[in-house]
């Protein structure tokens, strides 16, 4: 018998939980909160000014989930549906608090090169124009795994433009699939891939600078 399509498998996995939530099962709801709340806080904190505002937005999201669970049609995963609600509420709260984040911030329109052009040989090079100026060296693993370096990576992600930060947070920090990210943020697959590529490139540049400063 052929395996079910991934989206049908996901729907089947979500269905018992959705039915439990619709039936008012408190244990099911508390289990869902426990599994998603930390990631929701990290995601909301990328939009709003303070931890308290992020907590408010997350609590409002859970209220909407309980109120609208009967309207959930299973066209996306339950998780991406919840994060879609969270993203909308977080942007509304950010606007109210004076940290205006237009929806266009999620579009890859800044024209920024993904990799610094200085890392490539110039067009005038007689033979290897456009190739790496210097072959990328492997980073020492023991240095990459230090608490200082991991904190530096976290800071680099925090400084990204909102759209890039939202995508890399869900893809690389939370481990979401590209399909879920597109559903939660309302992005096309092309825009999601461009935003992720730019975000990873910016973070990589920050890691390079950090590692180079600490080479013996």
Overview of the structural elements:
This protein is mostly helical. It folds into 2 domains: 91 residues, RNA polymerase sigma factor, region 2, helix turn helix motif (Rna Polymerase Sigma Factor, Chain: A); 110 residues, Orthogonal Bundle (Arc Repressor Mutant, subunit A), CATH 1.10.10. It is built from 9 helices and no strands. The N and C termini lie far apart (59 Å). The N terminus is likely disordered.
In brief:
62% of the residues lie in helices and 0% in strands. With 216 residues, it is mainly alpha-helical.
Indicate the topology.
Elements: H1 6-22, H2 26-45, H3 51-68, H4 78-96, H5 141-144, H6 147-158, H7 162-173, H8 178-185, H9 189-213
Helix pairs in contact: 2-3, 2-4, 3-4, 4-8, 6-9, 7-9
The CA-CA distance between the termini, in Å, is: 59 Å
Element pattern in H and E: HHHHHHHHH
Fraction of residues in helix: 55-70%
Number of helices: 9
CATH class of the largest domain: Mainly Alpha
Mass-distribution shape: elongated
Q: What is the C-alpha radius of gyration, as a whole number of Å?
A: 21 Å
CATH architecture of the largest domain: Orthogonal Bundle
| Portion in beta strands | under 5%
Tell me the CATH superfamily of the largest domain.
Winged helix-like DNA-binding domain superfamily/Winged helix DNA-binding domain
Structural domain tally: 2
The low-confidence runs, each spanning 5 or more residues with pLDDT under 50, are: 1-12, 100-107
Instruction: Write down how many β-strands occur, each being a DSSP E stretch of 2 or more residues.
Output: 0
